[in-house]
Amino acid sequence: MTPNIPKATAKRLPIYYRYLKILADSGKKHVSSTELAETVKIDPATIRRDFSYFGALGKRGYGYDVSSLLAFFKTTLSQDKLTNVALIGVGNLGQALLNYNFHKSNNARISAAFDIDPQITGLIRSGVPVYPLEDMQEQLRLQQIKIAILTVPAAVAQSVTDELVAGGIKGILNFTPLRVTVPENVRVQNVDLTNELQTLIYFLQHFEHNG
Ligand SMILES: NC(=O)c1ccc[n+]([C@@H]2O[C@H](COP(=O)([O-])OP(=O)(O)OC[C@H]3O[C@@H](n4cnc5c(N)ncnc54)[C@H](O)[C@@H]3O)[C@@H](O)[C@H]2O)c1
C-alpha cells in the first residue's frame, strides 16, 4: 500500500528513484541522506523527512537500504506514470511555468530546470531543482528526460537546442521566437502567444467588418 504523502514529496520521488536505480545498478547496498543530497541537490533534512513519510528510517552509520527504497518507489511511481520534463531558462516565463508545473496533469511535470545565472542555479524553485547549464546533458541522461521546455532568450535558443538533442531530448516545447533546427527524429512544438493574439485580433476585426 502507498501511504499518503505530501505533493511536494511525491514530486521528488522520481528524482530519488532515478538515482537509487543507478546506485543499485552499481551494486551499492546502502546510501546515507547526505550522500543522496549531494547527488540530487536536495538538502539532507528534506530527504530524511520525505523518506520518513513512507516509514523508511535510515540507521545512523548505515543509511537507507537501496533495494527496499527502490521497490517502494517503483510501486508508487508506476501508479501514475509521470513523464518528467526539463525546463531550460528560469526567467520570467520559465519561472511562471515552474509555478504552474502542470498541476492538473497526473502524468507530466517539470522535474529539472537549467539556467546559466549563478543567482538561481543550485536553488530549488517551486519544488524543482535548478541546475547549471553545464550539468544539463548529464542530468537529462540520469533522469531519463526526453522532453524539454525552451524558455531561453532567442539568441541562444539554437545552441541550447543542439545541446538538448545531444542529451537525448526527443521533444521540445519551444516558447522562443526562433524556429529551431532539429534532426528528423526530434519533434518541436512552437508556442507563440503573439501569434495567437494576432490571430484573435484578425478574427475580431473580420467579425466586426462582416457582422
Ligand atoms: N511564446 C510566447 O508566447 C512567449 C512569451 C513570452 C516570452 N517568450 C520568449 O521566451 C523566452 C524567455 O522569455 P523571458 O521573458 O522569460 O526572458 P528572461 O530574460 O526573463 O529569461 C531568460 C532566462 O534564460 C536564462 N538563460 C540565458 N541564456 C541561457 C542559456 N544559454 N542556457 C540556459 N539558460 C539561459 C537567463 O539566465 C534567464 O534566466 C524568450 O525567448 C522570449 O522571447 C515567449
UniProtKB/TrEMBL annotation:
Keywords for the protein's UniProt record, in alphabetical order: Cytoplasm, DNA-binding, NAD, Repressor, Transcription, Transcription regulation
DNA-binding region per UniProt: 15-54
Sites where the protein binds NAD(+): 89-94
Alphabetized InterPro entries for the sequence: CoA-bd (IPR003781), NAD(P)-bd_dom_sf (IPR036291), Rex_bacilli-type (IPR058203), Rex_DNA-bd_C_dom (IPR009718), Tscrpt_rep_Rex (IPR022876), WH-like_DNA-bd_sf (IPR036388), WH_DNA-bd_sf (IPR036390)
Gene3D superfamilies hit by this protein: NAD(P)-binding Rossmann-like Domain, Winged helix-like DNA-binding domain superfamily/Winged helix DNA-binding domain
Ranges for domain CoA-binding: 78-179
Compartment annotation: Cytoplasm
GO molecular function: DNA binding; DNA-binding transcription factor activity
GO biological process, one term: negative regulation of DNA-templated transcription
DNA-binding found in the keyword field: yes
GO cellular component labels: cytoplasm
Matching SUPFAM superfamilies: NAD(P)-binding Rossmann-fold domains, Winged helix' DNA-binding domain
Keyword Transmembrane: no
Self-association and partners: Homodimer.
Family assignment from sequence similarity: Belongs to the transcriptional regulatory Rex family.
Function as written in the Swiss-Prot or TrEMBL entry: Modulates transcription in response to changes in cellular NADH/NAD(+) redox state.
NCBIfam families hit by this protein: PRK05472.1-3, PRK05472.1-5, PRK05472.2-3, PRK05472.2-4, PRK05472.2-5
Annotated protein name in UniProt: Redox-sensing transcriptional repressor Rex
Gene that specifies this protein: rex
